[in-house]
Structure formats: C-alpha cells, structure tokens
Amino acid sequence: MADYEELHKWNIPIEEAMKLQVELSRKIRLIDGIKHDIRRIAGVDVAFSKDKGLGYCAIVILDYATLNIVETSFSIVKVTFPYIPGLLSFREGPIFLEAWKKVKDLPDVVMFDGQGIAHPRGLGLAAHMGLWINIPSIGVAKSRLVGNYEEPAPERGSKTELFYKDKKIGEVVRTKYGVKPLFISPGHLCSFESASRLVIDTAVRYRLPEPTRLAHRQAARVKEEYLSSQGSDEIGQPYLNF
Prior knowledge:
Number of domains: 1
Strand content: 15-25%
Oligomer: single chain
CATH class: Alpha Beta
Structural class: alpha/beta
Distance between the termini: 19 Å
Mean pLDDT: 93
CATH topology: archaeoglobus fulgidus dsm 4304 fold
Order of helices and strands: HEEEHEHEEEEHHE
C-alpha cells in the first residue's frame, strides 16, 4: 500500500487554506528527483457528479517503455470542500489520496490533470500532492490559470515560457502539430525541462500525454459504472469511501 505524509487537515476555512498554500509553496523543490531510467509513470484524474456530491479518482500506472497500463487504482469519495478556483487541490486532494493508498507498485513520477506551480500562490494540485506523496510530480493543464506567454510554433515539441509576476512558472507546450498547446508546470521534485520532456515523450498519439489521457478515461468509467450500479450493494457500496 502506498503511503504519504499527512501535512494538514482538509476541511479548513477558505482564508486559512489560501495562507496554507503560500506556506506549503515554500517547500516545493524544483530539482530533478526523476530517475534517468524511469520504470513506471502514473496519471491522475478526478471526475465529479454534482447531484450525488461524489468525486471519482482514477490513477493509472504505465510501463514507461511501452506506455501499457500495468496497474489501476480508484476511489469514490464524498466531496466536502466547495468548488473554488485556486483551491481545487483541497477539493480533489482527499479523493486522490484515497486512491493512492491502494497503489501497490509505486511509480517514479506522477502526472496530474491540473496545475503544478502555475498557480496564483504557487501550489496547484500537482505541487500540493507532490508534497504529500514525496514523489516527482507534474501538472498537465489544458488551459491557463495565470500567467503570460507567447504562442509556441505549430510543430510538435515547440514550447514557450509561462511567466507570472516576472517569474517563470511553467512552459506552454505543443504536443501535436497545430493543436492547442498544454500548460505544463513542475509540481515537486521536478524541473521545468523534465516536466515538458516527459509530457512530449508520452503524448505519442493525442494532444494529451498517455498517463493523464488514460486516467481521464478511467475516471469517467468509474463514475459511469458506479452510477449505473446504484441500488446494487454488491457493486456500489464497497467502492465508496467516506
């Protein structure tokens, strides 16, 4: 079972959560803890059902050489924190950690569908969770949260820098010719260069890299299967974590 360090409580006032983000951001280390011989790479995504008040997290772990799935883990958790832009890690973090507990073979790096340090207070989901699990983490976002940048060239692999308040916070990366770029930022124990390189290397067919693309599909599948199983104790209830 994967372990993590409990850094704080989750259900705290909004103002306190914002202050905590600033404090935790000072602990982020933009150094490469990524091995040269990566064996496993993970992707994380979270889906929600508003009417049920539930979050569905999927973690897929891929063999880095083949990008084949070697392990999956998921959780279905009651959502307790409101939707507030800039504080999404307080909403999604507990859901992710429930799925993380079930991981058997630890990955060398984890990609999150969200921001790393490209965040108003320097602590998006990937950065926040990177501190909790102490494993190199990368934020793979489909849209910009903050910052200014120049559009990268249309060729695959082209990239430009993302700046916020005169500080580099990420890179804008084109993973497929002519498609919208992704906003890549390191979370914890990862450099800008490694974050973008791993995203480009694993975006082999689509705009999204395989780890987060497959995690997105798995999270949607978990949500669909759970909702279709309502009324069945055999399928639904064992998966629910409160």
